[in-house]
Amino acid sequence: SFQYILCAATSPASKINEETVTYLNQRQSYELRMKRLGDNSSFQGGDQLKSVVRVVFHDRRLQYTEYEQLAQWKSIRPNERLLDIDIPLSVNIYDIRKDPTAVNKVEFLWDPNKDTSVAIQVHCISTEFTAHRHGGEKGIPFRIQVDSYSTEDEHLHSASCQIKVFKPKGADRKIKTDREKMEKKTDKDKYQPSYEYTILTEEYLYDHPRTSPQLNLCAPTEAAFSSPANNSYNSSFQSTPDLNRSLQSPTNPVPAPTEDGGDKGGTMEPLAPGASIQETQAWLTHNRFGNYVRTF
Hints:
The structure is a single chain. The protein is an alpha+beta fold. 14% of the residues lie in helices and 27% in strands. The protein contains 4 helices and 14 strands. It has helices at residues 60-63, 66-76, 170-184, 277-286, and strands spanning 2-6, 21-25, 30-36, 49-57, 83-85, 93-97, 105-110, 116-122, 142-149, 155-166, 198-199, 201-202, 255-257, 263-267. Strands 2, 4, 6, 7, 9, 10 and 12 form a 7-stranded mixed beta sheet that branches. A hairpin with a 5-residue loop joins strand 9 and strand 10 (155-166). The protein is globular.
């Protein structure tokens, strides 16, 4: 298995049994430590792993329009990347690739027998994808997702965590505000403590992420999530979090259309986890989600 640790504190305002959220400052470098747990003796003589780090939307509604949202962001900032790597601060990563058409994604090779970390920077803030009214808009959460592969492109592991990104120093102020609010609460036992590090939680992907790069179908629901912060961090980077929890896609019952355009009494059939692109497109069309077919 794998372990990824983001060196940024979790919010103290996360309730027990809810996913923690980690606040980041725009354009600040954050260390993401990477480790393959267990026996790595098979990785000798320069054998390496490939990992893809991306920033995706946490909200399911925005996930389905991710391609259009990112294209619009890129048109406004033609010379910027949404996600970047601070190469001088990264350790033991090689063959770094930044696709100019995928501004939210970076990939690189690394040796599991060496201490490895990548310094990432998020260049957008959470309010950039919200409807602007008269100020005070609530920023949307993102996810940092890491997908790891063998050099033969076999998918090995995926994990992610929820983040919110603020203007420079805004994350520090938000953490301070959350702590002050928690001090005044009488039901502190209903909230998780803040942890200095954020452990990314393992996910099971519906689609191979390289087959459908614009769509993230692995965002967890609150009911299925076990907070990564419940796993203690060991400074020697040897601690093993509980990475055996499956994150299920929400399957909220939605009335399915009948031939005459009405709703029938049952619920729509859920999309099969192993559905192909063509089957996914057919499912979207059948269930009146035709506007999202072009996402694939």
